[in-house]
Amino acid sequence: MSVRSELLVPAIRAMMIKILIEKYKYSRRKASQILKISPAAVTHYMSGKRGRLLKLLEEPRAVKLINEVVEKTVSKGGRISEAEIYDLALTLTSILEEKKKEEIKYSLDQGRNKLIRTLRERAQAEHEAAEKFMETASKLDNEITRMIFRQIASDSIKHADLLMSTISILERGEETKIEVPKKSVLLALLEKEEVAHVHSLDEVKSYLPHKLLKVLVESVEADERKHARILRSLIELAEEQS
Q1: Longest Cα pair distance anywhere in the chain, in angstroms?
Q2: Is 26 among the domain residues?
Q3: How far apart, in Å, do the first and last CA atoms of the chain sit?
Q4: Do 59 and 67 form a contact (C-beta atoms < 8 A)?
Q5: What is the percent of the chain with per-residue pLDDT over 70, rounded to a whole number?
Q6: Residue 157 falls within a domain, yes or no?
Q7: Which of 7, 54, 140, 153 could link 133 by a cystine bridge, Cβ 3.0 to 4.6 Å?
Q8: Which domain holds residue 9?
Q9: Domains identified in the chain, total number
Q10: Could you tell me which residues come within 8 angstroms of residue 51 by beta carbon, excluding any fewer than 6 positions away?
Q11: How far is CA 173 from CA 113, 116, 169, 176, 200, in A?
């Protein structure tokens, strides 16, 4: 949340008083004269009753700037006007806003990097799994189990490819743009997908001689349901873009 410059004025005075008293060993009365405020006000600033935004000014660039203003005033034996303090508050507001933007960007970059690491680890695991399943399949004589292991390997490769594509997009830092076919095209594809569902495999599964074959048939049905969900999502996106 950004801070209005006028809200920084008490904090700037509090820091200037601290510098004058602790660094230059000025009395509270002398500090009050330089800042054109009452000795009682100095006491309030020193006690923390004023300038509660002082913590915001711990930013190194802010500290340096305030010290430079105080040093310049002390060296010339002058006083710090209200206008100077408000000008300083405007400058410090810009510095703090810039710092906030840098912190947000750093946080986003950290989150993105963590996400990329997680995706890369998962993609690597999928590749390794694919290799293991293909190696196991090559050693099997039974057609059914060999087919099952090859299917798992194929799925793992597809998963790894999807993850690597996602990583590539994230690393380029591009705005995600999706090209969606026309709604009419998507509706036609969905209709074909749903026609396929009409021919239910439930009856087929009841006649299959082994439960592993049933699992394979069920995986076909699961893929068809997934395809339908994807197409419906694309149709919704096409409607939003039209």
Answers
A1: 101
A2: yes
A3: 36
A4: no
A5: 93
A6: no
A7: 153
A8: 5-100
A9: 2
A10: 10, 11, 12, 13, 14, 15, 45
A11: 11, 12, 6, 9, 44
Structure tokens at 242: 């039209």
**206 domain-assigned:** yes
pLDDT block averages, 10 residues each, the chain of length 242: 75 91 93 91 77 71 92 91 91 87 87 93 95 95 90 94 91 76 90 74 77 84 88 90 78
Per-residue tokens: 160: 């790894």
pLDDT tens-digit series, residues 107-152:
888 998 999 999 999 999 999 999 999 999 999 999 888 989 999 9
Give the side-chain half-sphere CA count within 13 A for 149. Answer: 17
DSSP string, 117-140: HHHHHHHHHHHHHHHHHHHHHHT-
How much is the pTM?
0.58
User: What DSSP character marks residue 175?
Assistant: P
C-alpha distances out from residue 20 to 27, 31, 47, 85, 237, Å? 8, 6, 15, 15, 63
Which residues in 81-103 are b (16+ Cβ under 10 Å) and which e? eeeebeebbebbbebbeeeeeee
Q: Which residue has the tokens 């305030």?
A: 66
Positive or negative: CA dihedral 121, 126, 130, 136: positive
